[in-house]
Amino acid sequence: MNIRDLNENDRRNVQQTLIYLGFLNPTLPNGRPADDGIWGPITDAAYQRYWQTTETPVWRDTANSVGISVPVVAPAPVRPWWLSRGVWGSILTLVAVGAGFVGMGFDADAATDALMPIVEAVPLVIAAIGAAISWWGRKNAKAPIDPTLVARIGGQDVRLPVRADTHAARRDPRGHFSD
Length: 179
Description:
This protein has three domains: 3-68, no CATH class; 83-139, no CATH class; 143-179, no CATH class. It is flat and about 75 Å long. The strands form two sheets. It has a two-stranded antiparallel ribbon. The chain is mainly alpha-helical. The protein contains five helices and four strands.
């Protein structure tokens, strides 16, 4: 079923469900209600966001105000074939079967010898990426690091104690803990 095949009441129900689930604002920028039964660019954008973030479609039963799982009124938006894991899995399977038919085999020892340098280099690559991220983060930092702040829980700062006779305690505007 296509969006164009829906009647105004069905489009209104889809819009009310998108509002209920938080994907569509209840009012349009012009102040009119968003559940007007017109499938425009705002409703379409909300519907696209719904499909991008939702795996199991949820439908709102407006008569009973209950969220239930039902068949989808409109199909999911299409995506290009090259983004489908199923298509790529099928292509790789066909390539492997074709290679087997033409006599290409798989030499496990040769594959192991070829892959071992890559596997051994992975921790070094991860460490290099981590170092680059930390350098970039400190280079672009907008404030110094607070060495006493451990966490923020419910709007409250949890801090480590600072000895009163240290340089950090003397310059900390929040004060310090007593010994």
